[in-house]
Structures are given as structure tokens and as C-alpha cells.
Design a protein that fits this description.
Chains A, B: Keywords: DNA-binding, Transcription, Transcription regulation. The structure is a homodimer of 323-residue chains. By secondary structure, chain A is an alpha+beta fold. Chain A contains twelve helices and twelve strands. In chain A, strand 1 and strand 2 form a beta hairpin. In chain A, helix 4 packs parallel to helix 6. Strand 3 of chain A pairs parallel with strand 5 of chain B, so a sheet runs across the interface. Chain A binds a DNA duplex (30 and 30 nucleotides) through helix 3.
Chain lengths: 323, 323
Amino acid sequence: MNRLDRLTAILIHLQTKRVVRAQELADRFSISLRTVYRDVRSLEEAGVPIGAEAGVGYFLTDYHLPPVSFTNAEASALLLAGKLIEKWADKSIRTEFESALYKIKSVLKQPDQEHLNELDELMHVSRPEIRQPYSDTLLTTIQRAIAQQYILDIIYHSSYNDAESRREVEPVGLYHYSMAWHLIAYCRIRQDYRDFRVDRIRELSDTGQQFARHERLSLQQYLNQIKARFDRPSAVVTVVFEKAIVRHLHEQKYIWGFLGEEDLGDRVRIQLSTPYIDGLARWLLSYGKFVTVEEPELLVEKMRALVNEVRHHYRQPTLIDVD
Amino acid sequence: MNRLDRLTAILIHLQTKRVVRAQELADRFSISLRTVYRDVRSLEEAGVPIGAEAGVGYFLTDYHLPPVSFTNAEASALLLAGKLIEKWADKSIRTEFESALYKIKSVLKQPDQEHLNELDELMHVSRPEIRQPYSDTLLTTIQRAIAQQYILDIIYHSSYNDAESRREVEPVGLYHYSMAWHLIAYCRIRQDYRDFRVDRIRELSDTGQQFARHERLSLQQYLNQIKARFDRPSAVVTVVFEKAIVRHLHEQKYIWGFLGEEDLGDRVRIQLSTPYIDGLARWLLSYGKFVTVEEPELLVEKMRALVNEVRHHYRQPTLIDVD
DNA sequence: TCAAACGGTCGAGTCGGTTCATAAGAGGGG
DNA sequence: CCCCTCTTATGAACCGACTCGACCGTTTGA
């Protein structure tokens, strides 16, 4: 008998009786007990809600789940999400997402399905990088390990010293920044928290051993700690931009803590507030003569220092620099 | 992938489209055509009413699937997608996505629900830019207009001349690049295709009038055209960064068309490709001595010109610059 | 303490999958 | 009308992976 047929037959058998012993199924299909256990496991993995109790047997638990249906807008949102996921997650996540999306599509009404199929070709996400396409299948494994507190054994290629190292880590969370997913984990060797870029993890395996999460920082705590470490007092600075280029600032000025602006005719006086005075100086440098620093004097000095720096750096190679 | 899972997935796939070609299934599950034929045969033998027509494909004749249920892995993938969506899409999409995710959660088994709730707090996405948070509710409206070919009436804030303009456009598609969603549309006033950054659309309303898409380029055609137009002037540049700095580049290198990098020990050679050579030069200037331009010579000259510019701009007021 | 559900491992053997060759039906173009 | 293309469909040969049974032990609830 076909395995597929047998599985459906077992399902039907379970539906006809309140409780069924594994031995009963083994006899009915003349298979071993071991195989029954494996079949039941397969059905469970396929989503059939089978309950089991030692000393009693198998039984089906509420097979009548409420039918879900999705609106057109929900499906469209999921489709858009899928477009992003296609580029921003690895293969394992892509596959699972796709599978879910197909399921959702399948319960839509015919016109909505067509609407969605049309929309599918009218949205596109560009991923500028050529970087090795996220072809790994790590994210789902990591997700499971994080939620179920499994220790992971990873081989990591560090960009810091360009070397591979192997370590056992206790995963704390997944964090996405700088266009990449990062695994935050407690490294048992270094006895500290580490930040692993997922696309630099060469190999990963689940050791099966569990750890106690409560002994570790939560993801939120870790992020707060990182944030606190980089928190410094801010300085208020005043700069004057040529009006012609003010419109190019737009989002960027908020990064440097935009406080307010004052119209000076063909120029605009802008106040900013940031703890990263050096970074600000470098940013202002890129606006060249179109920006003038008024305050503080410290920033002006930093600007001059930078000018000196680039002046030496970009000197004509034919001239001897006396420095 | 499990054969059992594949068969159900094929069944679901068949429900999402009117006709499905065997090749499509073969591609999706990366199996051979031969295997698709055998799988379809298996489904037919299991009682699924699949119709087949040579030269056309497979289709399902009235079949009602039992209510969908989602696997743990699928739900986890959706959750991860939701984390990205939270930061990369506007409020309308977020709302719809959340609503769908909630429905999906509700049909999960209890342990899976708990698994998901735990995972929810262990994943996080950082959006580095402070830019006005995507609070608009435009994307779903745009999606609907695109798919149903409705003319849109938009008020757009152009960064080019820092002015608002109102126009009627025929939406062609949504395209995501440079960290933002862009509406590609045919502007009826300018009689040409335009690229509107969705977060710069101040107001948007659906006129209710339809247009004929077949008269316009498809999104794919438009993208190809754009690519062709910008492929030529785009210059490939090679720069070498100090390794200590590389991690601060974050997303920015992608804005300048990051192509790839080569490890040089304590430095990293990076290749970029951009048509905006002047902007690139100003950006590179802010990295001072920590970046060295290798190619092209044109860029080196631009850097020197900028250095001269800032040198005059930041000269000591008390000293006379002999130039 | 019993009875039942579970899990690991290992060897034999089947069956699932690929590749290649071929047939055959539907539609389009000249 | 024939020919070409696209598609479903079948057969044969070959190989690897998976299924299954046997035996062991562990866990769990009554």
C-alpha cells in the first residue's frame, strides 16, 4: 500500500473513532508499531491536530478550525511584504513566506486572485548589492533556536580579522540594521554578548542543548545597553547654508538633530544639536563653500583640521609635502 | 521537501490560478517535469478533480479545500516580514499586514501561538534614518489604483525645486529603491513617465476614472528603459577605505551603487557605480584621509577641486592665503 | 507497576527522482 | 493544408534517498 494512501486512511480512521491505539493501526495496515509512530508524526507535521496520551491512544482535537479569509487589501499588503522579503531575507524565509502567500491566495475569491496576480507584476524591489545573494537557509533555524532557547554551534567569518572561528552561542535575538540581519548572541567562549552578521555565518547547527534565557539580557536590554554606551551629551551648533542647497538636506538635517531655521534671504541659518560633533564636521565638509559654521568655535577648528587633513591627503603627488 | 507537503502545496498552487503549467510547478519546487506529471497523477488518483489540456496547462474543476492552516515556520516567516514592513512600508500597509497576521495567529495551535509571541520580542529592525516616519496611508490606495487602472490626482513635493505641484497621473507600478517606495506613473500634463517618491506625495486621491494600461509601458519596460538611459553615464569608481571606517558606511555605500569589496588587510577596496560623480566626490570628501580614490582620474581631480574649495572657504581670517 | 506513547540506530530494499527519448493534442502561421 | 511550437504525457534506465522493520531503551499517565 502506498504511504500517501495509508496516511489518509489513518486520518479517516482517526475521524471515525474517539480514541485509537497505535497497535490497532499497526494491525489494520500490517505495519510495525514503529512505523505507526512515524506516520502519526508525519500527520502532525502536516498540520493535523492529533492528540496523544500514554496509556490511552490517539484522538483528533478540534479539527474544525475557524475558516480564515483575507480581504483584498490584506492580501495586497502581504504581496508587497513578499516583494521586500524576496530581497531582504534568506532563502528559508523566502520559501516559507511564499508558501504562506500561496495558501492565502488560494482562499481568495476569483476576482481578488486575479487582482493579486496582476499586482504581482506591477511591484518591484531593487536591491543594489551584488553581494552574495541571501541563499543561505539560516534564518528559520535561528528563529527556532531563539524562541526555544537552543544553543547554536556556528562557524563565523569575522570581517575584523578576516578569520573563521567556531563557537557555541546562546541566541538572544535577531536584529536588522545596516541592510543585514544580525544575530545577537551570548558567546560562551568569550563570556560576552556578540553581534554576528547572519550572512557571514558560514555554518550553523543546532546543538539541541538548551540554555536559560533568564540568565541573559533580553534583546531589548541588549539594544538599550548598546544605545546607552553611545549616548553622549549633545552640542548645539549654528551653521548657515546657501539657500540653493537647503532643499538637498531634507532628511539628513534630522540625523544631526535639526532644531530650527531662520531665513536670511539667499541663505538660511540652521541650528543643530548632536553628540557626534566629529561626524557632523565631516558631513558639513561635504557641502564645501555652501555652508559656513558660526558656532561653536570648536566646530570651526574641527573643520579647519579636516581641511588640513584632506589637503595633505589629496596633495599633488609630484609635489613634496613638507608637513 | 516532503513529498506529502509538496502534493498539498501543488494543490494549493492550483487553486490560486485558473491554469498552471507543469513547468511552473517544476520551477517552484525545483523538481523535474517528469516528477510533476507523476505528482499530478498521484493527486488525481487521490480523488482531486484536475483537468489537463495539452498546450494550455492544468486547472482545477470545482474543488473545495479544507480551511487553510499555517505551519510554525510559515508564521515565523510572516512575523519576520512584519518586522521589516513595520519600517519599510507606510501605515496603511502596516495596518493591513497586522490584521492579516492576527488572523493567521488565531488559527495556529496554542503552542505555536506561544512560540510566535515569544519570537515577537526577539526580533527587531532598526531604521537608521530619522526621516518623517512612514505615517501616510498611500500605499494601499496606490496599489488599488495600479491594479485597477485608476487615474490618480496627486500633490507632489518635488525636491528638485522645493515646490509643490498638482497633477493627474496614470500609475504604472511601485518600485522600491534607495530605501524608499517610488510610484512610477505617466504624467498627463508632462506627457511622460515620472518617478514620484511616495513619501513626498503630500496628497493623493483616486479620481475614479480609468485609463488603458496597454497604451503605457509596463513597469518592467519602464525599468529597462531607465536602466538603459542611466547605464551609460554611470561611472565605475574604485576607492580604498581604512577598515576602521568601513563599518560606518552602513547603507550609504548602497546609495552610491556598491558593487563589491576586496579585503586588503587593514584596508578595503570598494567598487561603486554611480552617475552622480559630483555628489560622490562630496560624500568621499567627508571621509578625509580615511579614503583614497584610485580610479577614475576624473574623480581624483574633482576631489582636488573640492579640497581647494574648502581650503579657501575655511582659511584663517587673519592669514593671507597665498594660493 | 503496567501499558502505552516515544526516540535512536542500522541494514535491506523499495520508491522517488533525474535524464533522455518519444508520442500526441492544441493552436498559430504561411 | 502542412509545419512549427508549446504543452501534457509515457516509458526506460539508472542512482540515491527514504521508508520500513527489528531491537534497544526512555518517558508518561493511570
